[in-house]
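Running low. Got one?
___
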Amino acid sequence: MNGSPVRVVVCEDDESVRAGYAAVLDAQPDMVVVGQAGDGVRALRLIGDLRPDVAVVDIHMPRLNGIEVTASLMEPPDPHPVRVLIVTTFNLDEYVYDALRAGASGFLLKDAPIDELIAGVRTVARGEALLAPAVTRRLIGEYALRIRPADPAPAAVPAEPLTGREREVLLLMAEGLSNGEIAERMTVAHETVKTHVSRILAKLGLRDRVQAVVFAYRSGLVRQG
């Protein structure tokens, strides 16, 4: 981002929620809300025209839902893709894996404190995935194991083997830990963890941390329970 504010589009069909999100995010010194959409079709059009850094997308929207919007944004592959932060609730768990496959970078509970929304936007804008332990660890553990055999694997064989340290970092990522939390757990520098994560993604041919965690479950490196 090179010091520029994070450009955000808010996609939410509830006008009061949408306005609230937009007001809070636009008030941050490092963010600017460049557009708002109340349905999926307008969201796609707006995001395509404005090319924000992050789109905050509700799963349930008229005309196109959040999963359909996310999938459309990821095809064809874009060297500078919009990062999608999905807004969901625990009673919509069945949609979360579909959103993972569609290419979402993170998930936020709709009733989460507003500080979590702000932090989530910053996290995905940095190119990291929002893997809050309260949400994603349980969901990925359950839904990553439901992939049909016909589904394409994120990466069947690494381009080169992961080192012991990289495997350790991947396991901690699968627990839902952030880079800072991993650094504290491993007693290493934050930049060292960032380097390990970048190498893991490159070796596995993956886009982001969410795909890496799914890979960890699919490959058997992490087992549910």
